[in-house]
Amino acid sequence: MAGTDAQDSTTRSSDGRITYRRLRAPAGDGEVLCEPPLKESIAAIDANVRNLAGWNFSVDNCDVQALCRAARAEACAAAVRFTSQYDDIDGTLINPERIYVVGHQPDLFHPGVWLKNFCLDQMAKRDGATALHVLVDNDVVGKVALQVPAGGLESPQLREVDLDQAAAPIPWEQRQLLDAQHFLRAGDAIAEQIRAFVDAPLATQLWQFADEQNVQGANLGQLLARMRHRLERSWGLKTLEVPLSELCRGATFRWFVAVLIARLPQVHGSCNRALAEYRRLHR
């Protein structure tokens, strides 16, 4: 599923060659690009499950099916631990045998990205799967600010509202909130700017989940994600969240990294061949 960015859809032929099909997000209001279409998603998912069930090999004397089960169990456990810090978890919605995953950086993203979370929730409820949103907190964050519509209908303009003090670029997982009082006032500042266009700005609802107790000394990305996730759950979504940095601490991920390092020449060659093919097709 895509927001506003162009994406590639890939298929592989019987001889192993990859075909790329260029996809572009629609420009019209309310239009959605979803590949494959949601109505076809269950068939695609079931086909993938059947394909994975046919895997019958070992890597470094580790059975691949056992590794997959362990990885899924670790992901579910990590997500439950993280989400339980700020909300109650319904254990009946945890199914380590089938996990649907989306992910994004832990900032306040646009509706095209946010749509994925709502689709994730509905698909997981439909299919009895665990719905997991991964916070990609290894990406670097620089200035933390929002471009907010302001000025009114007659003279619209964009104004920037800072959420925190400026800081040197650093990965999200290491970025702490520097000015708690400024952050707490930012919700009102955003709402004041946009109120000429919207009677009930969403920022007002969002910032109700920010208070002195959970803001002071918080990781900025986790704070923003927790506020957004609590708002989603107040609307009935049953997704779980977990930072990528937490998943990387699991035993199966460490094993995966060790395997890649042990096969570095092979991994290096495979990566370069895939990159060369992509460049050849896209010139």
SSE string: EEHEEHEHEEEEEHHHHEHHH
The major β-sheet equals: 3 strands, parallel
Figure out the total of helices: 10
The unreliable regions are 1-6
Percent range of helical residues: 40-55%
User: C-alpha Rg, in Å?
Assistant: 21 Å
Sequence of strands across the biggest β-sheet: 5-6-11
Count every beta strand, where a strand is a DSSP E run of 2 or more residues: 11
Give the strand content. 15-25%
Average pLDDT score: 90
Notes on the structure:
With about 280 residues, this protein is an alpha/beta fold. The chain has a domain at about 140-225. About 45% of the residues lie in helices and about 15% in strands. It has ten helices and eleven strands. It has helices at about 40-55, 65-85, 110-125, 180-195, 200-205, 210-215, 220-235, 245, 250-260, 265-280; strands at about 5-10, 20-25, 60, 60-65, 100-105, 130-135, 140, 145-150, 155-160, 170, 240-245. The two termini are about 25 Å apart.
What is the gist of this entry?
The protein is α/β, with parallel strands linked by helices and 283 residues long. The protein contains ten helices and eleven strands.
Question: Which descriptors would you attach to this protein?
Answer:
single chain; 283 residues; alpha/beta; two-stranded antiparallel ribbon; 10 helices; 44% helix; disordered N terminus
Layout of helices and strands, plus pairs?
Layout: E1 7-12, E2 18-23, H1 41-53, E3 58-59, E4 62-63, H2 64-83, E5 99-104, H3 111-127, E6 130-135, E7 140-141, E8 145-150, E9 157-162, E10 170-171, H4 180-194, H5 202-207, H6 212-215, H7 220-234, E11 240-243, H8 244-247, H9 251-262, H10 264-282
Parallel strand pairs: 5-6, 6-11
Antiparallel strand pairs: 1-2, 3-4, 7-10, 8-9
